[in-house]
């Protein structure tokens, strides 16, 4: 797929998700958006905050999610401006759609089906007021989908070629999904 076509598809996705850029913080993102100020006020280092978030996940929530604590804290620390934050989420959704299209092309060996799947996918996007996978969660669900699609793409390549190092990459990305 050429660069111009990818740009047009990305523009189409961005237009379909334009309301995302006009939205504010939702759900836990309202509290998480204060991460940078909280760390500066309490004089806590960024790495200590990530460790605290991971420990909280294990002790309180019963979740082993060290990578999720790292990515979530990083996004909310550096993207403290709502417009920057929403632009990052939009970029992640576009990457998700491209990875999905590449996955379809890898399985089907049909470039046209991949393009069609990328054009149809935004038709299924919707926004909800509460706990929306696109409007909230700090881009976490998009990151998980990126890792899952990458794992699936490498799994397909392993099934085609049988190289064991490709299987290791598959398992690595799948484990990143599990620990998010």
Order of secondary-structure elements: HHHHHHHHHH
Mean pLDDT: 89
**Distance from first to last alpha carbon:** 31 Å
Helix vs. strand class: mainly alpha
Work out the helicity level. Answer: over 70%
Overall number of strands: 0
Q: Radius of gyration over alpha carbons?
A: 18 Å
| Major pleated sheet | none
Q: How would you describe the shape?
A: globular
**Relative strand content:** under 5%
Number of H- or I-type helical stretches = 10
Which regions have little confidence, pLDDT < 50, spanning 5+ residues?
none
3D architecture notes:
Helix 1 crosses helix 7, helix 7 runs parallel beside helix 9 and helix 9 packs antiparallel against helix 10. This protein is mainly α and 180 residues long. The relative contact order is 0.15. The chain is globular. It is built from ten helices and no strands. The mean pLDDT is 89.
Can you summarize this structure?
This protein is mainly α and 180 residues long.
Keywords:
single chain, 180 residues, mainly alpha
């Amino acid at each position: 797929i050429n660069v111009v076509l990818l740009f047009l598809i990305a523009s189409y996705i961005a237009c379909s998700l334009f309301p995302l850029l006009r939205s504010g913080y939702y759900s836990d993102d309202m509290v998480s958006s204060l991460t940078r100020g909280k760390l500066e006020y309490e004089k806590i280092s960024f790495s200590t905050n990530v460790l605290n978030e991971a420990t909280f996940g294990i002790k309180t929530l019963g979740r082993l999610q060290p990578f999720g604590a790292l990515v979530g804290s990083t996004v909310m620390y550096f993207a403290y401006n709502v417009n920057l934050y929403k632009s990052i989420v939009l970029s992640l959704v576009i990457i998700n759609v491209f990875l999905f299209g590449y996955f379809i092309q890898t399985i089907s060996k049909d470039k046209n089906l991949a393009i069609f799947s990328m054009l149809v996918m935004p038709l299924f996007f919707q926004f909800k007021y509460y706990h929306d996978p696109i409007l909230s969660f700090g881009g976490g669900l998009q990151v998980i989908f990126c890792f899952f699609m990458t794992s699936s793409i490498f799994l397909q390549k392993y099934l085609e070629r049988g190289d064991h190092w490709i299987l290791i990459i598959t398992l690595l990305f799948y484990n990143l999904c599990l620990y998010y």
